[in-house]
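Quick one - inputs below.
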Amino acid sequence: MTPTAVAESPKGTEQTALITGSEAIAVACKLADVDVITGYPIRPYDTVIQYIAQLISNGEMDCEYIVAEGEHSQFEVVKHASTVGARVFCGSSGVGWMYAFECLTVTPALRVPMVVMVGNRALDDPGAFGVEHNDALAVRDLGWQLVWVDSAQEALDTALIAYRVAEDRRIFLPCAISCDGAFLTHSQALVKIPAQEKVNAFLPRYDRGDLLLHPDNPITVAPQANEDWLMEIRRQTAAAMDRSMGVIREAYKDYERIIGRGYGNPFFEEYMTDDADVVLVGMGTLSTPCKVAIRKMRQEGKKVGLVRVRWFRPFAAEELAQCLSRFKAVGVIDRDFSLGSPYSSGVLATEVRAALYASAKRPPLVGFICGLGGREVLVPDVEKITGIVYDAAAGKPQPLTHWIGVRE
Amino acid sequence: MGRLFAVEIVYRGIFQKTLAKHISRAIVLAAHREGKPGISFGRYGDSPERNGIPAKAFAIVATDDITLEEGMAKYEPKEVDVSINLDDTMCKGVESWAWYGLQPINKLVKPNGTLIVTSREEPEKLIDMCHRKETPYKLAIVKGIPSFSGLWVFKDDHTDVRVLGAIARVLPELFSIESLKQMILDDGENPLKATSAQRSYDRLQTVTVKPNQGNPEKPYEFELLKWTEMRDGISIPSIAQGHTMTDPVTGKTGGFQPERNATFKKFSTRTMRPVVNFDTCIKCTLCWLQCPDSCFDVTPEGLYDANMASCCGCGVCEAVCPVPNCVTMVNEIGFSDNDSQWEMWRKDKEGYGTWLKDKIESHPVRSHGFRYRGQYEEQVPEALAAAEGD
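Output:
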């Protein structure tokens, strides 16, 4: 399991390419030498399989590339391939991800370390294809590791880390990397591509060990289980998820040591929080308008910071609560919704509120739903949000959830 | 606290599902006529039912609602006043989808409670089949062939009302025979069914089974693993491939015996078992090929021995065998072990011939209710005659 240390400069043969977030994940698949990839087109995730097809046709990548007849089969194929020892990649978006839901629900308990990309997309109708996070979030209770990235570079690095974590024998749980549709999947940026040797040193072979389906290891997978067994199976899956945080930490540390690029705290990024009075919390690419707005507001004397959550599952509840309890008020920006939930909040706001409950110091928390269906979150939106958070800090009574950027 | 009554109905999955449901519902409705509340349910863990695999239905009745809640706070009762066994071959014990291992048929019967069995056998025979119990209980026999019907079909041969009449006799506090008969008549059923219930009530004989009576064997059981002891990934070791067989007389090895499932033995699934005439077998392989449970062991000389650890008693082997009377399905009631017939034949061919003849001739024909077209029409009058007769 321990990767070999490399002596030469981590900059070695690193190259730079102008690619989208999806293409960056395709490159990670190439570097990870993925064995089986299945595809079924749905926007915006299809950009990743297009690029993988291109890499294969150019002779740069070698793998089984299977175009399924729908997302359900697409995920089933890689699930089974993984049980016979193949490193696999798959993905989808929006309602395509939902069409695969049956397979998604059973994958964690089968301990299949599937790595997938979710090109975040609204759950239709009518043919909406802009970003919303509800698609990936739908599996949040089932044993999937879920991570959000906000740049093409982070997409590539996180995909390699995801393989390392998911395929760790202590974990063997699937991992979905969420990339905001359009903002990440369709925008090209300069991405540093690590040298193959360094990736090899970081990422060991996938070894399914005693769970390998092979004639030399005769086992039966997923036999009929009644109430005498299922609770124990769930408990095992829960224990694997509980171990995930430690393994994620290890993987980021090794990634920095071997590849030469570090992300600090793997679970959330803190931006200008050191002296902040209030902070905003969010996931994905809305970090960019937030950071720009924060810099602008700081020039106006407002001490605002940002906490961008990367790993939603496992959720770093204690660490996040400790961080957030330092501030006078917290504003959570959701690019999703959870209709009828406590205070009609978004999913992230509800989770953060729950995480803070055990904390001795609980700052006021206000939720914001914005940027749905691919609508942009702009700097004035963030300024408006921050104003409401400041009001909360001042103790001004107000609704706990606000819709921002909706015509009214 | 009022009084709580619990009745379980042990039945053959699918073949007796509707019958068991009729009885379970009727218990509650008859008791309700006397003002008692109750519930009726099938054991969820037994579904999806499989042909012949033992399953259970329950009726819980109480003298008042609060007491009924006491009975409803656990899904399956841990002890019952009356246990009804709708197929006498299950006296050997039951292994269902709902648990692991073999449960004695009388396991849930309270001290001095009653086990009611539908059977043509004498009490001594059934007592020997049942596992020993630490406390005494009563055995009551509703005379007649076990009532089997096909998938979801109800065979209206009066078995339901005859069992209910027996319950009124052994546990009149639950409901009286008058309440039962009135319910049958009010439901617009054939008035003959009320008569059948009364006859069953009048004729019922019970014997007391003492703790030293019955099968002394300890039923096989399995320990459920802790979550930390289980393999992860919902995986279990496969059943190993198998091995050659050894001739008990010559020591010659050959053929092939597959390994058998160590945790589900199927012994209690059968109502019939095939007996094989090895002297007339032409080694055509059809039984071996067609058996849905791969139960046939291939002997060194190329004969086919039905392995009782895997046989579900479906009768396909008998149906496909091209040789007259080479494979015959025989009532499971006639057997007390699960030994290899081939080994018995190898050791003593003449003795085996006598044994075979006796097994085939001395036990009533059994079926799952669908062995041949027209069987239902034949059996209903037969069952009614049995009910009317002695």
